[in-house]
Design a protein that fits this description.
Keywords: Membrane, Transmembrane, Transmembrane helix. This is Aminopeptidase. Pfam families: DUF3754. This protein is an alpha+beta fold. It is 57% helix and 13% strand. It is built from 18 helices and 9 strands. The protein has helices at 2-5, 22-31, 36-71, 76-83, 87-107, 115-122, 142-150, 180-199, 202-205, 207-219, 246-250, 306-328, 334-373, 379-407, 412-427, 435-445, 461-468, 472-482; strands spanning 8-13, 111-112, 163-177, 231-236, 253-267, 280-288, 374-377, 448-450, 456-458. A 5-stranded antiparallel sheet has the order 2-3-5-6-7. Strands 1-4 form a two-stranded antiparallel sheet. It is globular and about 100 Å long. The N and C termini lie far apart (78 Å). Residues 1-5 and 208-229 have low confidence and may be disordered.
Length: 486
């Protein structure tokens, strides 16, 4: 019982993404400025910062989109054929595209899912209770393997030669329902576990799986190896850990699972055609960690695994042997016979009805992932990423400048802490602020410098606007305003 009531916590690293809309951020900070003239200068500076940062990334993003047009799964093959490029040049362009893509992912604060994260995600179940696997024969293994051989990454997952999963943002998904079939499954599972334990068969049948379960429980201690003060904790509430009571069995219950706010999957399908080099980029939202399998590419139709069949058949044979042995005993215990027989029937019913119920749930989840949870793919995802990069960079620069403007000189660590405190106090959000990137851009803009002991300081608002100067966008906007209406 103590294990049932124990909370299951998932430890997660704090995200670097700033989860605040840019207009809300700018307006809130502007309202903290006392003088009206300074407020106007600050709003002007925010616009100019965005225009400049957008222009910095314009060429890089244009290059990214041009490269993707050659590897677009829909029209890329035709464009490659028109280019009539030799294979080694196509390989070079392919490599360049992936390099740009991974840079944009990093700038927009997407992180590559590691092996530990995948293990923790798979250590629990939420709505999807079927073993989902990928048909590896339908996926190309050369593209990513070649890329990572040139650009190695630490702690790559086992499937990194076939597809890559990027994730960003943490949320919580709750589902409230009666979960009748799941509760029946839980009762049968607990009864079957008790039966195996009482008959001494548990250690023989499930020694290996118990060790694996123990490893999964231990892995739930966290996804990150960062210091504990840098982490957040999210509770995972599952039916398997539910307290066995009449009210819980007959009423609605709420289960809870941490989610990845955004997931992007990158892969290529296997093909015998030389010019079919399409790279698939799928973008999903609000994916429960335990149900991450729904975003996998080229999934096989789920079925009972060979191990499930082995456990089923071995359990039935041993149960029947035990049953026959109990009957042949001089003083057969009717309770033991009834328990063994009930266990066998219940176990068979559990496998059948659970599989049918899970298949229905699986089909619903796949349909939902296609229509509700899939945000975009291909070019649309890349455009979304490019805009994400700009929005994040602008917010980082604006917050850093505001802190230096309002609170004066600061060291790198002080500025980092002050920015995080501002986000927490004014917006109620936790963020692992990327101060290095922000400082680099402020120095590039020429509106922040360092003193003799290495502390950062900013110029005045009016001077900052003079240094950046009038942008092309402002000239165009003024021309539109001055143009006579027809």
């Amino acid at each position: 019982m103590s294990e049932e009531n124990k909370k299951e916590l998932i430890r997660l690293e704090r995200e670097s993404v700033i989860p605040i809309l840019k207009p809300k951020l700018i307006v809130t900070l502007a309202n903290l400025i006392e003088h009206g003239s300074d407020k106007a200068e600050f709003l002007k500076l925010c616009k100019r910062i965005e225009y400049i940062i957008r222009s910095w990334y314009l060429l890089q993003f244009e290059d990214l989109m041009q490269l993707f047009s050659l590897f677009d799964p829909i029209h890329g093959a035709k464009k490659l054929e028109q280019q009539n490029l030799p294979q080694h040049e196509i390989d070079t362009l392919e490599h360049k595209f992936l390099m740009h893509l991974f840079q944009v992912m990093d700038k927009s604060n997407f992180k590559m899912a590691t092996q530990e994260e995948i293990q923790v995600a798979h250590s629990g179940q939420y709505l999807l209770n079927l073993p989902i696997s990928v048909d590896e024969t339908k996926l190309d293994k050369k593209l990513l393997r070649t890329y990572f051989s040139v650009h190695p990454h630490d702690n790559l997952p086992d499937f990194s030669d076939k597809y890559i999963i990027f994730r960003r943002g943490i949320g919580i998904d709750c589902t409230t329902d009666y979960f009748f079939m799941e509760k029946v499954d839980m009762i049968i599972s607990r009864f079957w576990t008790w039966l195996l334990k009482s008959t001494g068969l548990r250690h023989i049948l499930f020694r290996k799986s118990s060790a694996q379960h123990q490893n999964n429980v231990q892995s739930n201690n966290g996804l990150s190896i960062e210091a504990e003060q840098e982490d957040i904790y999210v509770e995972r509430i599952r039916i398997e850990n539910m307290k066995l009571s009449l009210p819980n069995l007959l009423s609605k219950i709420t289960i809870q699972e941490p989610t990845f706010d955004r997931i992007i999957v990158v892969y290529r399908r296997a093909s015998k055609l030389k010019m079919d080099r399409g790279i698939f980029i799928k973008h999903f939202r609000n994916i429960p960690m335990a149900d991450m399998e729904i975003v996998l590419p080229e999934k096989k139709n789920p079925s009972l695994t060979p191990m499930d069949w082995v456990k089923f058949l071995v359990s039935v044979v041993l149960g029947l042997v035990t049953l026959v042995g109990s009957i042949e005993m001089p003083k057969a215990d009717a309770f033991v016979i009834f328990a063994i027989l009930s266990g066998l029937i219940g176990y068979c019913a559990k496998i059948y009805f659970s599989f049918q119920q899970n298949m229905t749930t699986y089909q619903n989840l796949i349909t939902q992932s296609m229509y509700d949870k899939q945000l975009d793919s291909g070019r649309g995802t890349l455009l979304h990423l490019c805009d994400d990069v700009i929005q994040q960079e602008v917010k980082e620069v604006i917050i850093s400048f505001f802190i230096l403007m309002e609170q004066g000189k600061a060291t790198r660590s002080d500025l980092d802490l002050r920015c995080e405190e501002l986000i927490k106090e004014e917006f109620g959000e936790n963020c692992n602020f990327d101060v290095d990137d922000a400082i680099q851009k402020l120095e590039k803009l020429g509106i922040v410098a360092r003193d003799s002991i290495g502390r950062f300081y900013c110029v005045g608002l009016k001077r900052a606007n003079e240094i950046i100067g009038v942008t092309t966008e402002e000239v165009v906007m003024k021309a539109k305003q001055d143009a006579p209406s027809t």
